[in-house]
Amino acid sequence: MRQPAVRAMGYFPVPEGMTEAVASMFVPNPRARVGDFTAGEGEALLAFTEATGSIGFANEIEPIKFDLVQSRFRYATKGDFFKLEASKHLLSAAWLNPPYAQENGEECQDTRHLRMVRRNL
């Protein structure tokens, strides 16, 4: 899909090489738990967890994408991020690339997303 069409849908893929660059700033830790609550197909979280040796926790709302996420991660949930209930301090870190869409004049989704993630770190 062309980038303008992808952007119009509120989806911005992580630029190639960016995940590895971010991962290089972390000390590998096999006990670290990294969550991505809007995982998509899980590509960024998978690259990050493989590079850092950490454990991935993925959530995706779209059924087709979730099937792929579930095949990639031991810990995968399907559902609306804003209705997801997770334990406090479940995660060591979060991979954040939220949907960038504003709905019906409401607060931009990435702002709401960041507030929700904060409670699980």
| Amount of helix | 25-40%
Number of strands: 4
What number of domains?
Answer: 1
Average predicted local confidence, pLDDT: 78
Can you tell me the overall shape? Answer: globular
Q: Give a short account of the largest sheet.
A: 4 strands, parallel
CATH class: Alpha Beta
- Approximately how much beta-strand content do the residues carry? 5-15%
- CATH superfamily, by name, is Vaccinia Virus protein VP39
CATH architecture: 3-Layer(aba) Sandwich
Overview of this protein structure:
- The protein has 121 residues and is an alpha/beta fold.
- It has a single domain, classed as Vaccinia Virus protein VP39 (Rossmann fold).
- The protein is 35% helix and 13% strand.
- It has 5 helices and 4 strands; from the N terminus they run H-H-E-H-E-H-E-E-H.
- It has helices spanning 3-8, 18-23, 43-52, 63-72, 109-118; strands at residues 33-36, 55-60, 75-78, 93-94.
- Strands 3-2-1-4 form a 4-stranded parallel sheet.
- Strand 2 (55-60), helix 4 (63-72) and strand 3 (75-78) form a beta-alpha-beta unit.
- The model is unreliable at 1-8 (pLDDT under 50).
